[in-house]
Amino acid sequence: MSVLAVVDSSNAREETFPPLSILVLHGPNLNLLGTREPGIYGSIRLADINDLLLEEGRSLSANVSAVQSNHEGALVDAIHDALFKHQGIIINAGAYTHTSVALRDAITGVNLPTVEVHLSNIYCREEFRHHSYIAPVAIGQISGFGAKSYLLGLQALVYHLRYS
Fold first, then answer.
1. What is the mean pLDDT of each run of 10 residues along the chain (164 residues)?
2. pTM for this entry
3. For the CA atoms of the chain, what is the radius of gyration?
4. Does the active-site annotation cover 159?
5. Which of 90, 164, 77 minimizes the C-alpha distance to 134?
6. What span, in angstroms and rounded, lies between the C-alpha atoms of 23 and 124?
7. 87, 59 contact by CB (below 8 A)
8. Of these residues, 41, 96, 133, 150, which one is catalytic?
């Protein structure tokens, strides 16, 4: 359980929340972080991002489970498996963001609040990266802040689950 002090104009109060369970999905080529195009993606490794997410999750009373796959079907299966196990999803679908109707349909099918994240600002890159099949079915999208995009996505998702 985490305790959050909420300050309003009248007084401060504490709220206790039950832990949430969040699935984080990392798509193709993200296993190469740290060595793959560091000028675009930075030098942080995927394991380091997962460690940061676990730490941030603890501070937010959220259990974080991370899955990485280079295979579209494995990501679809993980989304399906999230139903009844997790309250929300954070997804960096990598290149599948721009191509996968299957991931979009899986997210729609499980109807779990989903936040799309990207390390780079996809709108400052090649034109084909400007379209996302996931964005229309996500509650939000965060891109361009490096590894911090994941942490911001986790914070936003937890806030949405607790206060929306």
1. 43 73 98 84 91 98 98 98 98 97 98 97 84 97 97 98 96
2. 0.88
3. 16
4. no
5. 90
6. 27
7. no
8. 41
